[in-house]
Specification:
The protein is of the alpha+beta class. It is 47% helix and 14% strand. It has a five-stranded mixed β-sheet, sandwiched between helices. Mean pLDDT is 85; it is low at 1-6.
């Protein structure tokens, strides 16, 4: 209890060994709590409310770092003492953490499964509050040559055009592509528009000798694969049947 009472004062008044920055330098960042790490980012407080108090209020109100990341900036501004600069620092730090996870799971060489692709993209896409669409470009060896952000939509829909997707693939000389987008609701069930877009893209791409290997939908720690569900093969067969007619 005594230690918590001290922590209601400014960090500069704490015993030196208890201060977050000094503690990090001495024992490493893994020794700090989320509250202490946030306090380092916030740096300074306001009269009668220190950086530690602000970070503690953040976690008490939103509970987790993922929740803080998903909260709109307008909501974070309601926290007394949390300026735009401090909000930017917090958002930037969390985004770097997400990208670090994505780098650790980065796709190198040939993509062997929908799971491999989903695990690489999930840290970047599962917490987005709007739908975003990515094209994974493959080379002749089916290795990833680039990942392109193509569109960002509203809370529940993003509809890039078939033409736009094909233009990106052709301009990058990609013989094959994979598609990915997120559902902010967490529900990975494909919408009718998702199915139509995928079908129409496969039909249009086939005339250009371009393969669409998969389309995955990122949800809340899960994903949906058109290939795994047999829809890519189904749409390809429809294309063959149309040509035969």
């Amino acid at each position: 209890m005594g230690k918590e009472k001290i922590k209601h004062n400014g960090i500069k008044n704490w015993p030196k060994d208890d201060r977050p920055r000094e503690k990090l330098l001495r024992y490493g960042e893994q020794s700090l709590s989320n509250t202490e790490l946030l306090a380092i980012l916030i740096r300074t407080g306001i009269p009668n409310k220190g950086a530690f108090d602000i970070s503690r209020e953040l976690l008490r109100k939103f509970e987790t770092l993922r929740s803080i990341n998903a909260i709109e900036i307008s909501e974070l501004r309601k926290i007394n003492g949390l300026s735009d600069a401090k909000i930017c620092q917090i958002k930037a730090a969390i985004e770097l953490g997400k990208r670090l996870i994505s780098e650790e799971k980065s796709i190198q060489g040939t993509i062997k499964s929908s799971k491999q692709l989903a695990e690489a993209l999930m840290p970047l896409m599962r917490d987005l509050t709007k739908e975003a669409f990515k094209i994974v470009l493959l080379n002749k060896r089916n290795q990833v040559s680039n990942i392109v952000d193509i569109a960002q939509g509203t809370i529940d829909r993003v509809y890039p055009s078939v033409r736009e997707i094909l233009q990106i693939a052709l301009s990058n000389h990609a013989p094959a592509i994979l598609l990915a987008h997120n559902h902010p609701s967490g529900d990975i069930t494909p919408s009718e528009q998702d199915k139509i877009l995928t079908r129409d893209l496969i039909i249009a791409a086939s005339s250009m000798e371009l393969r669409v290997f998969d389309h995955i939908i990122i949800g809340e720690n899960n994903y949906y694969s058109f290939a795994d569900e047999g829809l890519i093969e189904k749409y390809e067969m429809q294309t063959v049947n149309n040509f035969e007619l």
